Amino acid sequence: MLHVVEEPIIVRAPAKINLHLAVGDLRDDGYHELTTVYQALSLYDEVAIRKADSLSISVQGEGSSDVPLGSTNLVWRAAELMAAHAGRANKGARVHIAIKKGIPVAGGLAGGSADAAATLVALNELWRVDASRADLVQMAAELGSDVPFSLSGGTAMGVGRGEQLLPVLSRNSYHWVLAFAKGGLSTPAVYKELDRLRESGAPKRLGSADDLMHALTVGDPEVLAPLLGNDLQIASVSLMPTLRRTLRAGSDAGALAAIVSGSGPTCAFLCASEEDAVNVSVEVSATGVCRTVRTARGPVHGARVVQGDPPP
Ligand code: C5P
């Protein structure tokens, strides 16, 4: 008898940075009210899902040894959520999820959220669930504040705890250099540090995103650069003071702007052109202030099914 091996569904999901991250006060549910502008960058995780006897996860690539393989991994929860949505209560999520990481773990680039979004998209296809976009977004929001954006990609404003997305008009592509740190930062710890700093003083808060939104319609990186801002930066630098040197290295190398990405510790440098980005990446790399340097462009699409070789 011919044994047919079903091909895995492979989904690629992008990293994100926050061009604007204004953190409001702590809410009763433990989250902070946010106004943020996300941009998806051409740095990806790839998730390949195939049918199996039980739910399991394997991980390879960037920082893979730090990724949990059990139920604490967001992809595990994503699979259980999609199984429940698909009415597979008895069968459960019998799949193997192979994650190929290009996005650093605990780096402030929403790598875990990218994997969760990719899992939702892949299972929707594998099990032929035909979930509506609205259902996918709702499941994504249940999984984490950044997961809806990992689904949508592009450039978008996030409000609430970051999970409610509004469209943003954006022209052109931007060129970035990303500096990965030696080690990661815990997102809750960074938010807590910001609360602590705000209790003991009054770090300046970001204003509205209006000017930045206007700059995005113009599409000129020189106009956008001075408008980038991140309220969490002071907290991530407080927890990892070496980031000051990384940020300075980016500016010294000729970047138009240097910011911490999300809760960090990845730093993002906006550059005037692709050529400038290559030069900045070489120069920052030579200073030895960070673990690895990558160039990326944004905006790019959200989680999408792709053709290609699955991770083993
Ligand atoms: O939503 P997500 O699970 O990604 O959030 C991780 C943690 O980051 C939360 O538990 C919370 O401590 C912090 N957070 C926050 N306010 C937000 C988003 C995240 O305080 N808007």
Q: Describe the sheet with the most strands.
A: 8 strands, mixed
Which blocks of ≥5 consecutive residues have pLDDT under 50?
A: none
- CATH architecture group name of the largest domain: 2-Layer Sandwich
Task: Calculate the terminal CA-CA distance, rounded to whole Å.
Answer: 26 Å
Strand content: 25-35%
Describe the fold and architecture.
The chain is α+β, with helices and mostly antiparallel strands and 312 residues long. The protein folds into 2 domains: 160 residues, Ribosomal Protein S5, domain 2 (2-Layer Sandwich); 125 residues, GHMP kinase, C-terminal domain (Alpha-Beta Plaits, 2-Layer Sandwich), CATH 3.30.70. 33% of the residues lie in helices and 28% in strands. It is built from 10 helices and 12 strands. The model has no long low-confidence stretch (mean pLDDT 95). The structure holds cytidine-5'-monophosphate (C5P). Cytidine-5'-monophosphate binds next to strand 2 and helix 5.
Protein topology:
Layout: E1 9-26, E2 32-51, E3 56-61, H1 74-85, E4 95-101, H2 111-126, H3 133-143, H4 147-152, E5 155-159, E6 164-167, E7 174-180, H5 187-200, H6 210-218, H7 221-224, E8 229-230, H8 233-239, H9 243-252, E9 257-260, E10 267-271, H10 274-287, E11 292-298, E12 304-306
Parallel strand pairs: 1-8, 3-4
Antiparallel strand pairs: 1-2, 1-12, 2-4, 2-5, 5-6, 7-10, 7-11, 9-10
Helix pairs in contact: 1-2, 2-3, 5-8
